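Hey team,

Filing this mostly as a record. A colleague (T.K.) asked me to run one chain through the structure pipeline before their review meeting, and I want the input and output archived in the tracker in case anyone asks later how it was produced. No errors, nothing strange. Just documentation.

Input sequence:
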Amino acid sequence: MTSDAFTFVDLFAGVGGFHAALSELGGRCVYVAEKDKHAASVYRKAWLSGEDVAFSEDINDDVQIDASHTIDELLERARGGQIDLGKIPDEFDVLTAGFPCQAFSKSGKQMGVLDRIRGTLFYNILVVVAIRRPKIVFLENVKNLVGPEHRETTFRTIITALRALEYVVSDEPTVFSPHFLSPEHGGGPQSRERVFILGLRGDLARGEEEPFAGPTRTPGWQAEKWSLTETSLADGVPAAITEGWLRTARDSVLAPRANEVSALRGDTKPYKVTDAAWFKVYETLVKKVSASTNHRPNARGSRFPGHPIWFDVTDPVWAQRERDDARAHDGLGRKARPWKDEFLDKSERFVAEFADILEQPARRPLLAEIRALGNNAWRKFEWQAQDATSLRDCLIQVRPSGVRVKKATYTPALVAINQAPILGQDLRRLTPYEAGRVQGFPDQVYAAMRDLQPDAQSYKQFGNAVHVGTIQFALVRFMKHHFDSVEQDYLGGLDVLLENCRRHSAWNFDPITTAGSPRRGASRAGSSHPHERTLF
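Output structure:
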C-alpha cells in the first residue's frame, strides 16, 4: 500500500472480511484485534505478511475497563493522561468492528452509558471511538440486535452512545444481505441478514443532512435470479464449482482461472455425503408426489406444504410425548410452544392425504422406509423448493431440526459450525474454499487457511465472517450519501476512499424514491422531519 491510503483499525477482525473490503477500496490497516488464535493466525498470513501492523489477541490488553461513568468523565480522564489505549494508533480514519450481540444492563436511566455497557465488547469499541475520534465508524452485528429482546436496549444504547459522541447515525437499523445485491454490486448467493451501523463524525457532516439509511438492495434485482452453481461472481466463476462448469470453462477464455479455482477447491471426494439413506428415500418421495395426478399443486407450484413434515407423528407414543411437551410450556410467554401442536396436526394431515403414495409399495411402503431412517433428524422433511421435481436440482441442509430442501439459488446463512449445505447434483457439501467464495473472500484467505488448519476451523471462520461485497456496497453508498457532491481535499485521508468509491459500480445508481413520504430512520442527533422515502 502507498502513503495515499486511508487508514483503518479492524476490531474483532476474524479472518479479515472488513480488511478485504476496505483494502480493495484503498485502505491500509494500522491495528488489528482478534482473540481466536486460529483466526488470528489466518489473518496474519493472509493480510499482514511482511507488514508491521500492531496486532492484539485480546483487545482488553489495550482498552482496559475505566472507572468513568459518563462519556464526559471518560474524555476528561483521557485528556488528563489517565487512560492509555496501548498499541492502538493515535490517528486513523475508519473503525470497523463485527462484534457479538451482548445484552446490556437494564438497571435504569440513572446509570451512565458506560455503566450499562461495561463488561461488553461494545464498551471497548466506544472507548476507542471516544478517545481516537475516527471519521467513520462501521459496526456489523446479527439481525437479532434489532429483535424484540435487544432493539430497545442494546441497539438503542449503541445509537445513543454514538450520538453522544456527535456521530451522525440513523436511529433505525439498516439490514443488508448479499442475496439482495446483484453480482455487479458485490452481492452473493447467500441469505445473510446483518445489521450495519454506519456513523459519520459530526464535524464532517455538511449542514442538516440525514443519517445514512440505505439503500440496502440493488434496485430491480430479484434474489431468485441467483444460481449457486451458475451465476458468475466478480472473477467470472460461480460460488460453487461443479465438474460440469469446469469442463465448459476449460474450453473458454476462463481456462486459466478454472484451473486456479479447481486447485483451490481440491478433490471433492472427502466432501461427498456417504451416509445418505435419507437422500434415496426423499428423492423417491419427491418424484412420486411431483408426478401425482391425485393431488393439486398449491399456489407455489408444489404439492408439498410449506412447513416441516414430522413423519414420526405416525408413532403414537412419540406424538403424545411431543404434545405433552407443548402443553407443559403453555403460558410460558416466549418459551411457549404452540407451533409444536400446529406442526403435529399438519404432519398428520399430510400423511393422511398422501397415504396413496406413502403406503406403497405394499411389500415395503415408503412411509416405512422413512420411519426406518436411523437418525431422528432424517425423519423430518421440509420442502422449500417450490416446483422443483428432484433433490438433484436443489440445495440441502441436514440439521438437528430435519432435512431442509430449497432451490440451488442462494444458500441459507453460513454458520460457525460444520453444517455446510449439500449440492444435490453432486451429493456433496460445499468445500471450505466454496464457503469462502459464498462469503466473497479472495483466494488468499483460503490459501492461508489450507496451510494452517483443518476444515472445521475454516468452516467456522467463514461462518463467523462478514460478507465482503456487502460491506463494500454499504460503505460505497454511505460515502455517496454524505459526499456525493464533495470536491477532493475536503476529507483528508478519506479522499482516497471517496475516489475509489466513485469508481465502484454501486455508486452509479439512484434508488427509486417517492416524494413527500417520511423516510424511516431519517433523523439527525435525535431530530426528525419529513423526507423522501427510499423504496427498497
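Quick notes for T.K.: The two ends are 36 Å apart (CA to CA). The first strand starts at residue 6 and ends at 11.
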